[in-house]
């Protein structure tokens, strides 16, 4: 049977960012240094394949610190944690390694500096997301207020409209956040913003690459987990950029082939916590059904690398 021709646009950059790369390395090096088990509070990154791989090597994933024994190392996820968590680990004299992405830590430091100047902070983010919980948890309750939408900006009750600053979750949609920032600045003209954009380079780059491929694709698939904020934003960006069928898939087995019947062009991207192995799996699945021509569409080149914490670079 002759296979139908298909052009597959591979968005670049895609997949692992420097923060995710570093976080995975931290877990692997901790197991190497201290032996198994090493405990990890919350999924180290939002990807089941990655988490299962680390579990097989000796990582034990828990939701809360009280599930960890005092005598085993614990690692905090790339999304960041409230200040109370490392304080509790110190009180229990635990060995802990903080795998918080340095770009998330930058937002934490920013929030603290604003607070030192007596400013109340408004955070643009998703309620319940670990990164939002971690950032809001850097300061006492009430010092950081959360907005998710432009509508929230109109409703928010602040202490002093002239003493405000804002920060953002690093994995948001650049376009949606722009609208919320504009609404904040319109309502609170004195509000202080970050020195440099909080949305991280990797989120921005992946969204730009998706914008480049979406308009010329019959369908666009984002390889990523349903609880990955940056992956879900890529699907939204693709739909807004003109792709009529944009879907999130964890693995090749999740592809709805009936929905792709009769397509001639498809684009593939991946969230910042999705390994390239899973992207290749999706490409191979297309190759079994179509006569595939792959075209890489590159909108940026990334050279960012973050060092692992010193404690892991020292001998045990």
Automatic annotation (TrEMBL):
Q: Where in the sequence is the active site?
A: 131 (proton donor)
| Amino acids binding dimethylallyl diphosphate | 46, 79, 129, 228-230, 273
**Pathway membership, UniProt:** Isoprenoid biosynthesis; isopentenyl diphosphate biosynthesis via DXP pathway; isopentenyl diphosphate from 1-deoxy-D-xylulose 5-phosphate: step 6/6; Isoprenoid biosynthesis; dimethylallyl diphosphate biosynthesis; dimethylallyl diphosphate from (2E)-4-hydroxy-3-methylbutenyl diphosphate: step 1/1
So which cofactors does this thing need?
[4Fe-4S] cluster
Q: Which residues form a coiled coil?
A: none
Gene Ontology biological process terms from the UniProt entry = dimethylallyl diphosphate biosynthetic process; isopentenyl diphosphate biosynthetic process, methylerythritol 4-phosphate pathway; terpenoid biosynthetic process
Tell me the residue numbers annotated for binding (2E)-4-hydroxy-3-methylbut-2-enyl diphosphate.
Answer: 46, 79, 129, 170, 228-230, 273
Q: Report the domain of life of the source organism.
A: Bacteria
Gene3D superfamilies named in the record: 3.40.50.11270, 4-hydroxy-3-methylbut-2-enyl diphosphate reductase, catalytic domain
Q: Which UniProt keywords apply?
A: 4Fe-4S, Iron, Iron-sulfur, Isoprene biosynthesis, Metal-binding, Oxidoreductase
The broad enzyme category this protein falls into is oxidoreductase
Job of this protein: Catalyzes the conversion of 1-hydroxy-2-methyl-2-(E)-butenyl 4-diphosphate (HMBPP) into a mixture of isopentenyl diphosphate (IPP) and dimethylallyl diphosphate (DMAPP). Acts in the terminal step of the DOXP/MEP pathway for isoprenoid precursor biosynthesis.
What name appears for this protein in its UniProt entry?
Answer: 4-hydroxy-3-methylbut-2-enyl diphosphate reductase
Gene giving rise to this polypeptide: ispH
